[in-house]
Amino acid sequence: MKPFRYNSPAFPSEWPESYYALPAKDRFRALEEQLKQYPDSADDLRRKELFLKRYGKTFDDGFMLGWMMLKVADSEGASAGNKPRFRHEVETELKRLCILDETLDDILKAEWKQFSDTLIRTYLDSPSYRSMFFGIGSWSQETTARRFAAEIVTVTKTVPQRAGFEAEMVPFRNILNEQFIALVPDGEEMLESAFRTPR
Predict the structure, then answer these.
(1) Helices 62-76 and 42-55 sit at what angle, rounded to 10 degrees?
(2) Which of 27, 102, 152, 187 could be 181's S-S partner, Cβ–Cβ 3.0 to 4.6 Å?
(3) CB–CB of 195/153 below 8 Å?
(4) How far is CA 145 from the centre of its chain?
(5) Average of pLDDT values for 149-177?
């Protein structure tokens, strides 16, 4: 199966665009170097604050974990008996994604944009995500992208709505949608179709 074809811009050379294009460990090293030169840079100090919230000291992506755990919450569902626990679990993952209890500023939006780019490319390039049944066969590129569009609806609308956090999710969802449209051919039509489909 051929790799997914993206609408890809050239690698940026200017700061901070170049920072967001780097892998996590390289991003942190570049940020530390930037802060050595400009230790009073409020923007770079904010980038470091968000980096540590997202990756911690292990460089494991907390945003990716939050996304996956919201998928798990959807599979468990929210019945009358477990609604308080469901709401607590969703709230925990929204905090992990810096959607709750965080200042919404341009630097957080840039972090979400970088995560959205990573998320989309990771999922649509993943052989396991593209495989059909028991690893036999693969979905087409278009089908794979449509499946992921449906997942965007589940994680950013259905699950938060069930837990009472749909409004809080909107800024994050808007950025993710924008990246999907920018990266995936026919992405806007795919998202519109996914959001129209009842869940």
Answers:
(1) 50
(2) 187
(3) yes
(4) 15
(5) 96
Element (H, E) at 80: none
- Residue 121: Cβ-neighbour burial (10 angstroms; 0-12, 13-18, 19+): middle
At residue 1, does pLDDT exceed 50? no
DSSP 86-98: HHHHHHHHHHHTT
pLDDT level of residue 12 (50, 70, 90 thresholds):
low
Nearest to 127 by CA among 114, 118, 119, 136: 136
Which parts of 24-66 are beta strand (E)? none
Predicted model pTM: 0.90
How does pLDDT run across 24-45, given as a tens digit for each residue? 999 999 999 999 999 999 999 9
Taking alpha carbons only, the member of 118, 130, 137, 114 closest to residue 3 is 130
For the chain, the C-alpha Rg in angstroms (whole number) is 18
pLDDT tens digits, 86-143: 999 999 999 999 999 999 999 999 999 999 999 999 998 888 777 765 555 577 888 9
- E runs forming strands in the chain: 131-133, 136-138
Nearest in space to 195 (alpha carbons), one of 144, 149, 159, 138: 149
Report residue 182 as tokens.
Answer: 């920018």
